[in-house]
Amino acid sequence: MSLKVRFQNAGSLFKQLPGTFRLFWQASPRGAVVLGALTLVAALLPAAIAWVGKLIVDSVVAAAQGSVEARSRVYGLVGLEFGLMLGSAVVDRGLTLTRELLRANLGNLLNERILQKALALELRHFEDSATYDKMQNARREANSRPLSLVTQAFSIVRNTITLGTFAALLVALSPWSVVVLVAASVPAFIAEARLAMAGFRLYSWRAPEGRKLNYLEWILTRDSHVKEVKLFGLGPLVLGRYRTLFQKFFAEDRALAFRRMAWGLGLGVLSLGAFYGCYLLVAGRAASGTITVGDMVLYLSVFRQGQAAFQGILTSVGSMYEDALFMSNLFAYLDIPTGGEATRVLPPLSPPRGHDSAIELRDVSFRYPGKDAWALKNVSLSLKPGQKLALVGENGAGKSTLVKLLLRLYEPVDGDIFYGGVNLKDMDVEDLRSRFGAVFQDFVRYQFNVAENIGLGHVPALEDRGRIEKAAEEGGASGVITALPQQYDTMLGGWFEKGQELSAGQWQKLAVARAFMRDDAEVLILDEPTASIDAEAEHALFERFQALAADRIAIVISHRFSTVRMADQIAVLHNGQVDELGSHDELMAKDGRYAHLFRLQARGYQD
User: Which GO terms describe its molecular function (predicted)?
Assistant: First the structure.
């Protein structure tokens, strides 16, 4: 990449600055003002200290030659320098403290923004690897890059002011030394910008592999995987892959570190040579009496510090360039377009509350983003209030996809879904979902206490212990809870202290109880609700379920035909289409796919 292109890229990336400074100000307006004030004071102190140092040397020389007045002036100047140095120390400590407080405030603000954005994302975003990489890149840098970008900007201001005061002192002694100071530092900036871009590319390109590294670590450290890891002897294989990937990362990091060292060493020698060249000339002028010893000391101090200040400016610009590259990741994540769940009419339409709303699917087709195959194709179904629909079919037939469309986790590619006569696209998504109660096959095992695990099914009633106990009874979880040490206050899971682990069936009963927290739900969805419980518990669950869903629409997905035969209608899905539709008796009489699957399962029980 040419230097011209690199600078063009840098210009576009520094457009991240306004957004970063807005975040900085929002995090702590008072802290921003304090940081600015301390930076200004810190910028002016070095020149003042250097000038007082020159006066001390000249006064010492004069005092050595017999000047009584110069001797007394030495004491006052030393006291003044002490005060300036003390002030410099206090300001530096104040800057450190302010930056640490700002780091906490800004990091917390950004983490909240990232989490808020995650709440706004739709299911399609979480199932897209590119979006997930953006999220991980944003999370990785949120606690360091924004503050680094801001502090580097303040550092540039500080060093620029300091350099301006130094330049004013240097010009009076040797104008050409200012040119040498600048010329010796520019190559360092070019190298820093080049290496910053290389570092950004390295860390961005390997985001997918970084996710894989985290996944390999997850396999070896989570309780949900340990049984298979030990049974199948997966440890050496997974650890070997982890080690190989880590070594690849290490080799890339080492190569970049060596490049930084080589450039830093070479440019450091260049800078050192420029300094000692100037040192030689100034020392010669002092020896010949052209300038005073104090002037020489001032010149050397100012030149060295000025060189450091100028290099500090260039280094800060290079660091800002790198920080801005990473900030582009953060803003790219925060700018991910959402709104697929937004209502399409204003105000949104809302069917009357109650259990009188029918559901109708009209020629609904859907395929997942980036996929060619149809997950659902021309599906038409209707459900009246009080009806029970069972969805059966092989894995991948489209059963869970249909549920996702009903909940507007996705929207149909073609066709429409109506709820109470209103197109789902025209309903407020939160209003729609509040009408559903559901338990999914991949239900979540919250590392909270029992009451919260159930109460999360209806957050407004999270503190309503009576409602929670009723849901537990209806979901068949009361027996599980009674046997626990602190019953409803028992912490569950193995992540935190005193956590109580449950069996898969016990967790599933809690998930069913969570679904029953919404006792005003108009539609109940049970996605493989009995996969992890025994036959007796299954029978009891569906007896309760039939009673609870007497006047509601209910949708059941199950591979157990003893369950689905209770439904009013059974939809047999095959390759995303409704292959058969009818009651159990009707489908058995038809002697088609359903009857074939039913007999296969019945034969398995008989054998």
Answer: ABC-type transporter activity; ATP binding; ATP hydrolysis activity; ATPase-coupled lipid transmembrane transporter activity
Contact (Cβ atoms closer than 8 angstroms) between residue 552 and residue 522: yes
Q: State the pLDDT at residue 184.
A: 61
Q: How far apart are CA 573 and CA 538, in angstroms?
A: 23
pLDDT, residue 74, reads 83
Q: ∠ CA 481-487-488 to the nearest 5 degrees?
A: 90
* CATH architecture assignment, domain 10-208+254-334: Up-down Bundle (1.20)
Structure tokens at 591: 């002697």
Comparing CA positions, the residue from 185, 415, 171, 417 lying closest to residue 312 is 185
Contact between 377 and 365 under an 8 Å Cβ cutoff? The reply is: yes
Of 327, 319, 318, the residue nearest 15 (C-alpha): 327
59: closest CA among 71, 47, 45, 49? 71
Residues 502 and 492 sit within 8 Å (Cβ to Cβ): yes
Q: Tell me the C-alpha distance between 402 and 405, whole Å.
A: 5
**In this predicted model, what pLDDT tens digit does every residue of 242-288 receive, in sequence order?**
888 888 888 877 887 787 777 767 766 776 676 667 667 667 767 77
Per DSSP, the three-state class of 18 is helix
Question: How far is residue 86's CA from residue 48's CA, in Å, rounded to a whole number?
Answer: 13
pLDDT at position 514: 87
* Phi (first) and psi of residue 390, to 5 degrees: -110, 135
Residues 339-385 have pLDDT tens digits of 655 445 557 777 777 667 888 999 989 988 878 888 888 888 888 88
Give the type of residue at 118: A
Residue with tokens 């058969």: 580
Amino acid at 388: K
- Spell out the alpha helix ranges (H) of 222-339: 223-231, 235-287, 293-334
Residue ranges for the chain with pLDDT beneath 50:
1-3, 5-7, 342-343
Report the phi/psi class of residue 369: left, alpha or beta, with left for phi > 0 and alpha for psi in -120 to 50: beta
Side-chain-side CA neighbours of residue 310 (13 Å)? 22
Q: Which residues pair with 571 in a beta bridge?
A: 391, 581
Place of tokens 């029978």: 539
Dihedral over Cα of 106, 110, 449, 471: its sign: positive
- The structure tokens listed for 279 are 């040192």
φ/ψ of 375, rounded to 5, equals: -80, -35
Are 412 and 366 in contact by the 8 Å Cβ rule? The answer is: yes
- CA 303 to CA 163: how far, in whole Å? 10
pLDDT for residue 494? 73
pLDDT at 343: 45
What DSSP state is assigned to residue 525? E
* d(C-alpha 365, C-alpha 577), whole Å: 9
Q: What's the CA gap between 265 and 371, in Å, rounded? A: 52
pLDDT at residue 278, as a whole number = 67
Q: What is the C-alpha separation between 384 and 357, in angstroms, rounded? A: 7
- For residue 86, the model assigns a pLDDT of 92
The pLDDT score that the predictor gives to residue 2 is 45
Residue 49: how many other CB atoms lie within 10 Å: 17
Tell me, what's the pLDDT at 187?
65
Q: In Å, what is the CA distance from 273 to each residue of 260, 282, 504?
A: 20, 14, 71
The full DSSP string for 80-110 is HHHHHHHHHHHHHHHHHHHHHHHHHHHHHHH
